[in-house]
Every structure is written in C-alpha cells, then in structure tokens.
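Subject: Interface between my chains keeps coming out wrong

I've been trying for a while to get a sensible model of this assembly. When I model each chain on its own everything looks fine, but I need the whole thing in one frame so I can look at the contacts. Pasting all components below, labels as-is. Any help appreciated, I'm running out of ideas.
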Amino acid sequence: MVTKIVSKNFDIPNSHTLEVALKSGRYSSVEKLLKMKPDDIIEEVTKSGLRGKGGGGAPCGPKWRLMPVDDPRPAYLLVNADESEPGTFKDRQIMELDPHLLIEGIICSSYAMNIHSAYIYIRGEYKLQFERLDKAIQEAYNAGIIGESIMGKCNYKLDITVHRGAGAYICGEKSALIESLEGKRGHPRLKPHQKECEWYFDNPATVNNVETIASVPYIIDKGYEAYRQYGTEKSPGTMLFAMSGAVNNPGVYELAFGEKMLDVINELGGGIKNGKKLKAVIPGGVSCSILTSDEVSKAVLDYESMRNIGTSLGTGGMIIIDENTCMVEVAKNIIEFYHHESCGQCTPCRDGTGWIDKVLKDLLNNRGEMEDLQIIDDVCDTMNGKTICVFAPAVTSIITSIISKFKGEFTAYITKDNKNKKWQTS
Amino acid sequence: MNDKVKITINGEQVEAPKGMLLIEHLLKNGIDIPHFCYHPTLGKDGNCRMCMVEIEGSKRPQIACDTPIKEGMSIHTNSDMIKQVRKDILELELINHPIDCPTCDQAGECKLQDYYMQTELHESRMDVENKNHARKNVDLGKNVMLDQERCVLCTRCIRFTQKITNTNELGVINRGDRSVIDTFHGRELESNYSMNIVDLCPVGALTSKDFRFNQRVWFLESFEAICGACSRGCNINVDHRKEKYKDDKIFRFRPVVNLDVNGYFICDEGRLSYKNEAINRLENAYTQGKECSMGNAIKSMREWIASNKNKTLFLVSPHLSNEELQTIQIFAKEHEIPLSGYSPQYINESLADDMLHTADSSPNRAGMQKLGISQDEKFFKKELDDARLVVVFENSYFDANSGLLGDKKSACLFSVRPNDLEQFDIVIPLPSFLEKDGTYTNCDGIEQKFITGMQKNRPLEGLVDIFKESL
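Reply #2:
Try treating it as a single job with all components included. I did that and got this:
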C-alpha cells in the first residue's frame, strides 16, 4: 500500500547527513536539471500534475508560471515549513530524516524560476528539525552544492536561509508568512484581485510547502509520466499521510492518492486502539469537516473524492476518534486552539472564535442553554467567507460539521440527559 | 482613474471612475456605508469587515474598501442580506465591548453607537461576566489616553503613526480577542501630531487627556475657524458651549478637512491653542495703570493721536486680519502716521516641521506683506526714535524690549494681556481671533475667511469699529 517517493530514504540510518544522503541518491536529479531549460522544468512539473501539499492542493506548475518573466527585481522562493496544523506532522519527517531532499527540491525549483535566494520559514517549535536542516545546509554549502554555484557544475548562485517562526499558527498562511518574514506582525494580507505571484518586500516570490518542493526532484529525475503512474487522474502522485489519535500504529505513511481511508486505518494504522469502534475521523488537519464512521467507509484519499463527500483532503493529517470520545470535548479542544491562534486582524474571526470557545465552555460546565447552539451557528455563519484569510471558514467547517453530525451529544449536555451521553463507557 | 464607467448602485445607474475603490466613491457621493478601518489618508486595511456590499454575480458579500470599480458592476448597500451581515459583524464588535457609554467621552460621536442605532437595536447575547477585560486607562504619553476595552482594533492609530508621522510608536500586542493596541515597550507617543489619532479613532478607545471628562459632546456647538497658532492657517472646528448664566467657553479645536491647506490633520500645539483664549485675556481698559471705561480709553487715545500727529508710530502685527490691517492702514495714511509691521519675535525656525507647522507663529504675515506694510527693522527703529507716541496693535515686540519705549507716550490694543501692562499709558482690550470676523492669508497665499460663532456676554468692540472714523 505504501508508495515511497518522498519518504524513500526515511528508514536509512543517518539519512540526514550529507554522506548518507549522497550514497542514497540525493542530488542525482541535479545533473538532469542543469541540462533542461527553466521553462521546460516548469512544463515538466505542470504536466506531472503536482499539487500543493500544504492543504490547499493548488496545482504547482501553474503557480510557478505566475512568476513574472524578465522582471529586473530579484525573485524569491519561500518554503513554508511552518507546519502547525493539528494532526499534521509530515514536513517534520522530511526535515528531520531527509533534509537534503528538501535542499535538492529547492535547487530544482529555484533553477526553474530563476531564483537565487530561498528562505525556509520553519515553525519555531521544530528545534531538532531546524538544527538538522541548518546543519544540512551548512554541509551543502561546504560541499559546494549550493552557494556560488550548483555542485560546481553550473555558474548559478543559490543561497538558502532558514528562518524560525515565533510560534504563530497563522504564519503558515502564505501572506502572513511573508509579513512575518519581512519582520512585521504575522497578519494575512488582502487577497489580490487577479491571479498573481506573492510579493516579498515588493519582489516577486513563490510560497511552496516543504513536501511540494520535496516532490520535485523525483519528477525531474524520472519524468512526469513516472510521477503520474501513481495516484488518480486529477490527483496524481503520492502524499505523506499522517495518522494520529486512537489507532494502534500512528505515524506518517506515503501513499499514492486514491487509497480507501478505512483500509489505510485498518491496514497501516493497525485498527482502532484497544479494539474499540471507530467513531469519526478528521481527515486533513482540523481545518476541514469531520467524517462519521459511515462516511469514513466511503472515503477515498484524493482531492476530488474528499470534496464530493463534503470535506477536503487538507494536509492529509488524519485524526482518528474512537467511540469513547466526547465530541463536545473534541469541539472544545479544537475551538480552544483556534481561539488561541486567531491572529485578531479581522472582526469575525477575532471575536467569533472567542465567543464559540466561551459558549462551549459553558456547555461543558453544564451551564448550556438551547439558544447556545443557535449562537454557535450564527457566529459560524458570520465567520464563513467574510474574512481576509481562510482561517475563519476553516473554523466554521469543523465546528458546524461536528455539531450537525453529533448534535445529540451537545443537546445531552444541555438537557443534562446522561443516558444519551453515548460515549461514556458503561 | 479618468475613465468613467457605468455602474449601478442600489438600482440607480451612475457614472464612476474606473478602478477607484468603491468605498471612496460611495463616501464621496454621500452614500452611507458603515466602516471603521478605512480612512482616505490611511487607505484600506480590510480588517473591520463593516463596509460589506452585495455585488451581483458574486457569491459572497464583498468589502467596499477592497473593491475597485469595474464597468457594469451592480451593487447593493442596503439589501436585507447586507443589513443582516452588518448586524452580525457589529454584534461581534460589541460582545467584548464594555458598553460604558454613560462614562465615555466619545458618546454622541461614536461610530459604534451610530451603527448600533442604524442596524436595529438588539439585545446582547453575551453574558456580562463572560466579557474579556483589558486595561482601561493606559497613558500613551503625549496628550492621549487609551481604553483598550473600547477598542475595535481598526488600527487607524497604528497606521497613522506608520504612514503619516513615521514615528511608529503604536502596535497591536497579543493575538485573537486578546489583541490590544499599545505603545512598544518603553516608548510613548512623541509626535506633535499625536492627538489626531483621537479624531481618527472611531470609538472611545483613544481620548484626549485635555478634553476627556470635560463636556458631553451633544452640548457643544461648533463653528469653523482658522487656527492662529502658525502661518499655515489650518481649518478648524471650534467646539464651544454657552451655559446659562455663564460666559461662552471653548472646549476644543478639531481639524476640518481642507485638502489645499491642512488635509485631514492639525498639530497638537494648534489644537491646544484654544486654551490661550481663556488664560491671560485682557478684558478691561486702563489709563495710567488705572481701570477705566472702554469709551474713555478710546477717547484719550484718539486725542493723543490727534495732538501728536507728526510724532506717532503705529506698530501692527501679523496677528491682525486683513480687514483690520487695511482699516489701520487707511487711517494711518490719512493722518500721515508711519506704519510698521516689524515683528521678528514670532519667527522661530526651530518650530517648523515637515508636516504642517511653520516657523512663523503668527497667522497673517502674508496678508500684511500683500498690503505693503513695512517689516523693515531700520524703518521701525528710525520711526521709533522719532516718535513721541507709539500705538501698538496686538504686537508683542515690547514684551521683550520694554526699555525701548523710554519716556514716550504709548497706547496699546491687545486681546491677550502683555507681559508688562504698566509700560503702556493707555490699554484697550480687543476681541480675540475667535471672536472676530475677517480673513487671513496663509503662508501659501491662500485667503481664508472666518466668521465667529461665539456668543460672549460682553462682546468687545473690534479694531475696525475703533478706527473706521477718522479723527
């Protein structure tokens, strides 16, 4: 079931060191890369159908095409390593176990877009990953892989800098990430009215997720057809799926798109912990709608299938919830996170997340009223689609889906009906 | 921007400049659109989400401050959907607001209040004990107090310090609904334009240390005037109140928008110069140091001028209006009295800044120049030597040069009490610059008219009346 493309070297001891990485085939794509024209590289990536793996799933090639050609200003590649979505820990594996793959990916992507400076914006809490990445970059500089030239073969200057975030979830949003990288407060920017690249200090820039960049070397090395042999027509290739929660074997598994979610949980995840029944799955980090066990049995892991059942693939970080979990507590846990992390820039999200948090707290403390569910519904409606970034719509989708799919558990708290608190072990 | 396109606003077809921000067009055409964060000088920020409009063909409501005008767009600013959206967003603005309007200085000119009244009144669904709390009286430094609980985080104040004064003292601290405005650690507001953030603040979060707790705004009456603190001639609103049995009193100055002169702002010094009105006013006439009636003082002065015709010097000041200067000029010409406007004491280069304040702390030097009144030092000194009688009009030159009058006779006409009243034989009080009508010519040569709206119990006779008749 597992298809190892990005995670190929994860199991090799000391794979994060340059010595092992070179032996394991890292930087092998560079030779082919330097023979290609930048435009052909973008074409290759476009044909491969590679999609952004940070949660949005936007096609990568067309995004690179948004970079202006013949612009005299320097261009930048900004790698989004601010992985903070709850239930998502895939980029972490890449930076921890195969940082040279990321560097190789940066070389390929930068060369394709005529970029000479790349920044990796890494989540502040990733200390080990930062250290390994930083060390790998030093090794690459010392070995002449990056710096004044690429592996001494091509007179192409490339610098890679790692920048540590200060712990804000919102800095994973690309425009907030850029603001933060520019030294400002991490507030998302207003969206442009037409499709265009990002702007870093008013210079053209592209923001890509770590896993997306790490997928590029394979495409360059083996060609787009090799990549497309995995996955589905519209979701080609593989993705690192993270599994956490009530499963026997939590972890990160690289799968081709199109696998059945239930099979993945049962075969790779080893089934539900302690022989319990599956109750629900949050499929791609907490920013998408929850699936009930019935829906999970129908769920297929690709972008289109997930959208068809009313949720999204997101980052592929599945959170498995068993029958003994109280969904009100799940909702409270999630909204507490969002309340804490809302950047506070625009009104609906700033005050909405806090209000829902307070209402759910009252509910859990048996001070809930029937009107409360209406309040949550109204606030979610105000937050949906009326804010600068997609933080608030994400809150809306998870909170309203939990409430609508497990309404009985919420009303049981309000009516103080202990018989209906089905999650309690008898 | 010059291209006009046809758009439809609330069913009515109008022409609008292509690419202009929709909110700008709506506000310019008097179409009410609630907003907190947008301001013409600070631009869009898109954070308050109050200016939502419905655009036909668009799935969701859009903010007018981030919608460029396009050919054929049809928008609704008051549809049921928009009214509901506004109400919902306002509800969120208010859940953590302390609703302390009875003790808030902004009450009566508060956007939160206005919009709440417009969007149908609704009961709060938030328990009072569940509200967030923050610091209620933060001293931001120069002239401004902050109440963090009342703040709607529109960030106008922050953007003002970033874009207008470039002083960057303010920022948002913390995240989510714990976000508050504050100064950066160890800093305080330092610019001479800080008090503009009080006007910019749409709610009661930022208040003027000077004005707060002094007056409910609905008791105040306003008239437009010209600030007299420097030669820029900034347009101001004079907020004053005449309470029963009391004299008319000025409580504050606020800027009036005039893009040719001051734009949207005024400096703090000018804003606080209303205080000079109340302090040190000269209200009574004196002869030889003894209080006397206005009539007697004017009569004595006129007699002295008549008997010293060839030995008199008139010293006027750039604080006088064009009309006053002209009247005196005509009078002086008729009686062959030398006229000087020598007044170097008002110029101080260190006062000039790169925004509004000029080096000249008098409002009408350009007008005086235009009338051809000499400011030459030699001319003044020579005529002073020759004179037996010196008549001083609002000119403070002798404050620092009292010895120069020697044993000459002197008369003075002032609205503000001069330092050394004793050195003048005759002292006549004048109405202040806010109690008279006239025109000033500012440093850029723009003539600006002002008409007083003050209702003093005892209005003083103006210069024009005193000198309109010849001897």
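Reply #3:
Confirming on my end. Residues 207 and 292 of chain B are 44 Å apart (CA to CA).
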